Amino acid sequence: xxxxxxxxxxxxxxxxxxxxxxxxxxxxxxxxxxxxxxxxxxxxxxxxxxxxxxxxxxxxxxxxxxxxxxxxxxxxxxxxxxxxxxxxxxxxxxxxxxxxxxxxxxxxxxxxxxxxxxxxxxxxxxxxxxxxxxxxxxxxxxxxxxxxxxxxxxxxxxxxxxxxxxxxxxxxxxxxxxxxxxxxxxxxxxxxxxxxxxxxxxxxxxxxxxxxxxxxxxxxxxxxxxxxxxxxxxxxxxxxxxxxxxxxxxxxxxxxxxxxxxxxxxxxxxxxxxxxxxxxxxxxxxxxxxxxxxxxxxxxxxxxxxxxxxxxxxxxxxxxxxxxxxxxxxxxxxxxxxxxxxxxxxxxxxxxxxxxxxxxxxxxxxxxxxxxxxxxxxxxxxxxxxxxxxxxxxxxxxxxxxxxxxxxxxxxxxxxxxxxxxxxxxxxxxxxxxxxxxxxxxxxxxxxxxxxxxxxxxxxxxxxxxxxxxxxxxxxxxxxxxxxxxxxxxxxxxxxxxxxxxxxxxxxxxxxxxxxxxxxxxxxxxxxxxxxxxxxxxxxxxxxxxxxxxxxxxxxxxxxxxxxxxxxxxxxxxxxxxxxxxxxxxxxxxxxxx
Amino acid sequence: xxxxxxxxxxxxxxxxxxxxxxxxxxxxxxxxxxxxxxxxxxxxxxxxxxxxxxxxxxxxxxxxxxxxxxxxxxxxxxxxxxxxxxxxxxxxxxxxxxxxxxxxxxxxxxxxxxxxxxxxxxxxxxxxxxxxxxxxxxxxxxxxxxxxxxxxxxxxxxxxxxxxxxxx
Lengths: 594, 168
Ligand SMILES: Cc1ncc(C[n+]2csc(CCOP(=O)(O)OP(=O)(O)O)c2C)c(N)n1
Ligand SMILES: [Mg+2]
Prior knowledge:
The complex is a heterodimer. Chain A is of the alpha/beta class. Chain A is 39% helix and 15% strand. Chain A has 24 helices and 18 strands. In chain A, the strands form three sheets. A six-stranded parallel beta sheet of chain A has the order 2-1-3-4-6-5, sandwiched between helices. Chain A has a six-stranded parallel beta sheet with strand order 9-8-7-10-11-12, with helices on both faces. In chain A, β17, α22 (532-544) and β18 (549-554) form a beta-alpha-beta unit. In chain A, α1 (16-26) runs parallel beside α6 (148-160), α3 (61-75) crosses α17 (437-447) and α8 packs across α13. Chain B is an alpha+beta fold. Helix content of chain B is 29%, strand content 41%. Chain B is built from four helices and nine strands, in the order βαββαββαββαββ. Chain B has helices at residues 20-31, 60-71, 102-114, 135-145, and strands at 6-15, 37-44, 49-58, 76-81, 88-99, 118-122, 126-133, 150-155, 159-162. Chain B is elongated. The model of chain B has no long low-confidence stretch (mean pLDDT 96). The interface between A and B is medium-sized, with 22 and 20 residues. The structure holds thiamine diphosphate (TPP) and magnesium ion. Magnesium ion binds at residues 407, 458-460, 486, 488-490 of chain A.
């Protein structure tokens, strides 16, 4: 743990800024991602004089939050951000919203104008608590130095407890400079916020009964299992194997069951596998652990798994019965619920309906035989799927941390990179934030300095936070940016092709930088692959170089991402490839959906 | 099907801290829920607790969502659905200004008497009535005053409490 090398002489003499840093240290914080400015200068000054935490200077406050997300998601710890008032805080808003949607524990400290100026339109004043109220789990404005230490500790409690999320603590400059008393984290017990973790015994009994009687069961699991900690993934895999039931995972849940597990059907949802979506449509029992029936997963709600009973395990009661009515809700932590289910299963010596299950697997194998991820290979042009298959083959032994940007490349990465462990896959699922991947990879690399961290990127997305190459170079972080460069906002182009009659309005990027030279300009290393035969060499070089790398992988510009459930369609109306696309126009109902 | 729109009265105990009302209102506007009325005041100064009485409408699934969403706000202590949790008393206060002379004036005073509304201000040509009752009773009184010279209504919104010995 980080210890103070130059702690202030006595607690009584501490300033607010020192209290803040000590509170961070006592919370076990090792790294802060931040960017200075007038309203946080006292904190930066205290940081200069002490050695409580390591500060990583990003190049944009949005990236500070994404980096903290990458750090948090690859370690299970709270990610910490420090930004100034006004533009510093507003720049952080996209990151905070991203963390809220994907349930990532973040504490974001924002500077604020001194308390006596609040509300006066002072220089660099923004109503930060007002602006961030809808995009945080909770926020605080500290107006009294006596409550400062307590508030910081409480912020960590709220960020971690229950369903994790971002918490903002807005810190007026006079509070940072005032004398402030220190209290340690031990003293803090939150008065009201104590989410339930342990499930009801009766619900567990009922669940085991339903699970053992199912004829066409399906586990459908998501990010809640990741957030519960690595043990939950082990328990999930154990329980799935005990039953022999098929399991599908959401984009957020990849890695909770090893991709090599034969019971795993692949990802579910809009770009999930045919077998997962068909199984979801036809199942008679859905066992949802830590997923939230997101619209990317359910497709058309009216036709969603029409003949199924549903069990829903979630730590957040407001996720239950939100868009899909379930038969058996279980409020609790995914890991605790899975442990209870396993214990009850053993106690009851529960058995599955073997004959029904064999029939169900027969059906599933027929769906699997469609080989839905196949694509037309090419000897002359790099198919994005091929590039990712090679990336996987050449890096899997290194157990890399993968982040992505947003678009087709993200969906292909989810389909073609196979995750054997949780917390190795970080993608912006809920918000779909272009610009997420590079800073998130930086955060993961800070947490795991000796490991391979790769951002699978699109050429459009990467330009949204490309400035973070400079951060990577400053801290000698060997992050790899693997750009699937199709010169298009591919996902936008795909939708325009599918839904808007091929009118490619503004989805082509006329002028792109030379990414190899750009890497060089930042002080990193650039490689280009233009032919399939070059892909392996470039990937090997990329791994070998212990510096920040950008790979410009020039891929097929016209490739579309399949399979796909078009918006407004049901699971059994998937498009499997270009042929299907021509035959099934998108419904009017689907056109209004995103 | 459970698509019927229902009206529910919720009692919500919250920490009386800055921004708590904005959180509750932001939740309703951000998620598109209805607020029919909302009343808030501190009820326990020593523990800094305020009580919000909220009347809202929606399908049963939406009402369940509203309660779950309210409950997960950090400063919220307790959420009670008075409509489903047995009998409760609901009251609202209104101030109603009526302007008129002659028969209309006399008639307004007579009806006020029947409704047990009190005149709390009067001029030669106007009354301000104060009345307390169920929202329906106030609606009825206001409707009767309309042809008699109603010019202004100010209502508090509903406060409510469960019947019987148990507290929130
Ligand atoms: C900040 C932001 N702006 C706009 C979008 C909408 N959007 C989704 S995917 C996409 C195109 C991404 O292009 P690229 O990064 O090249 O990835 P590709 O789809 O080509 O793989 C856009 C514009 C978004 N998701 N995020
Ligand atoms: Mg692209």
